[in-house]
Amino acid sequence: xxxxxxxxxxxxxxxxxxxxxxxxxxxxxxxxxxxxxxxxxxxxxxxxxxxxxxxxxxxxxxxxxxxxxxxxxxxxxxxxxxxxxxxxxxxxxxxxxxxxxxxxxxxxxxxxxxxxxxxxxxxxxxxxxxxxxxxxxxxxxxxxxxxxxxx
Length: 151
Ligand SMILES: CC(C)(COP(=O)(O)OP(=O)(O)OC[C@H]1O[C@@H](n2cnc3c(N)ncnc32)[C@H](O)[C@@H]1OP(=O)(O)O)[C@@H](O)C(=O)NCCC(=O)NCCS
Fold this sequence. Notes:
Shape: globular
Largest sheet: 7 strands, mixed
Bound molecules: coenzyme A
CATH topology: Aminopeptidase
CATH architecture: 3-Layer(aba) Sandwich
Number of helices: 4
CATH superfamily: Gcn5-related N-acetyltransferase (GNAT)
Strand content: 25-35%
CATH class: Alpha Beta
Number of domains: 1
Distance between the termini: 13 Å
Helix content: 25-40%
Oligomer: single chain
Order of helices and strands: EHHEEEHEHEE
Strand order of the largest sheet: 1-2-3-4-5-7-6
């Protein structure tokens, strides 16, 4: 387990966040959306996980009616399997409870076995499938979990 510093993202984190996006996803989030969110925070919470000052991972949480919504989660390949995503999820769990959300939901690509394994390891279960949800036509699986997580 690598103990990381978890903190809220600031506009200066834009470059490291876009670098994580490029390293982690074939279709990264649009840079202009990340820039807008960092400069005009409001709808969603961006958290970063830093190792000795280097941002190794980040995630984005939004709020639905009675549930929080994990919109993104990514850890640089060279920092994986050190418990960094777990620590981000622990922080997102705390924020969800502050919002009085006792449940979190998320979408994951049906082919993304690493992420599916990760989420099931902390208690996420299959809820439904959204056919052709992603731009390339892949299905999304909707997963949900009770909070606090099984960490
Ligand atoms: C999914 C992801 C965020 C996990 O990050 P991570 O920091 O490596 O995860 P952790 O080290 O906290 O993993 C905790 C546990 O989850 C499970 N897990 C994580 N990655 C796994 C993998 N590749 N295969 C199987 N189980 C995995 C394991 O049980 C792991 O515990 P262990 O290492 O003691 O066996 C990371 O693989 C990633 O960034 N993937 C690319 C982006 C992505 O797909 N994001 C999800 C979008 S929905």
